[in-house]
Amino acid sequence: MTSVIEVASLRKAFKGRDGTSRAVLTDLELTVGAGEFLCILGPSGCGKSTLLNVLAGLDKVYEGQVSVSGGRVGYLFQEPRLLPWLTADENLDFVLDSCRVPTSRWSELKSRYLAMTGLSDYRDYYPHQISGGMAQRLALVRALCVEPGILLMDEPFSGLDEITARRIRSDLLAIWRQTRKTIVFVTHSAYEASFLADRILVMSGGAFRQQMLVPIARPRNYDDLAIFEFSREVIKALGDEIGGGPVPAVLPVTEPILIDDLDRHVAARMNI
Amino acid sequence: MLKLLSLVTAVIFWGILSLTLPPEIFPGPLETARALWGEIAGGQVVTDLAMTMLRVIAGLLLALMLGVPVGVVMGLNRRAEAFLDVWVMIGLTVPSLCYAIMAFIWFGLNEGAAIIAIAVTAAPSITINIWEGVKNIDTRLVAMAHVFEASRATIVRRVLLPQIFPYVMASARFGLGIIWKITVLVELIGRPNGVGFKLFYWYQLADMRQVLAWTLLFTIIMILIELLILKPIERRLFAWRPKVAV
Q: Contact B149/A99, CB-based, under 8 Å?
């Protein structure tokens, strides 16, 4: 497998107001292979968003080597960050234009990804006219339609309600299976990471503490007990690293409610 | 429809109120309209109105030229904000009459002095509006544009300006409201024509019919500008905004 992201002894510190500096990233080493789905898991303030900003080129002040190859970078933020004065369609045009994608390809790209996310009927809506879940889907379409080789995602579903979030996670996996982008996904949810990733890197205090390969076959079902079991192991690893207390005993699992076979279109209309 | 009703009610209210005093002191709407019609037919109205409008427009443009850059700088730079903060406060506090007196004494009784006095009075309010607007710029959208490889020019044109523009529009409207009133005052003390001059002239002759006729004329023009020019521009520019249901 060829690697598209190579990070060697990456260090970064923020200067405090009193002149003392606080290390945010300490000697990070990271290799991400082409087509891999990597999750970086850690508590708030562990440096995972900072790392993502460095990879995206938003943050250029650091020490060490960072090389990102394999095409353009697409980015999905925690919030949709759509331009509110543009319609859904115009928001997509904005990034297609700024990324200098040839005009002749715009309509094909937009149609394809809008269809994948069930947003084809919402092209002429302004961001304030659609729900938060739909806005985040649109942001996903925006990231995909500039045809990135690498997709960086910074806790993109943590601001959504659980039902909407699990729906989009399943969509994301389906899209990933079709397009095989390299994805670096930052999250603080062990369950989300276990459901999505090939590989999980547990991060705390600005360094990777542990690497875990997810042994669950694809396609995955969000309600698979194996994901639940594995996420417990991940939480345990996370707890060991950040010095949390013992993980409570397994609770009896109630019959999960399946919504995955809900018609996508109905779901879109129901704003989920 | 409701607006029309409200207007009719206001006129009726004026009519009833005017009955409490003799017509020479408080003329009703009919008499005032007749006096106004007389002035318009006399042909003098156009010159005075045009002069006032010219001063208003020139004053507004100069006020925007002074106020917008200062507001932008204050919004972007913390040091500039700390330094200029006091200036803006002083500028806001000094009464418009003082600016007018200073301008006429220092620069002479001419058109330039009048326009400077008008602009300097209105500029601090415009600055405050723009300052707030620039501080409210969503930098997260700028970061988004960076990630999607937008050039600096594209970011300014398509991400920053659309965010600042509503505030420029609001300050122009708001500035216009202030400037109308200052212009009349400036004309009263230092110009040989214009609506303010006419008002003062008829006041000295104690002709309340004419005073109210000129006030009415002024008000009608202002409402027309608001309804026929500013409102439609704003509606077109900000069609994307959510409508607030009250």
A: yes
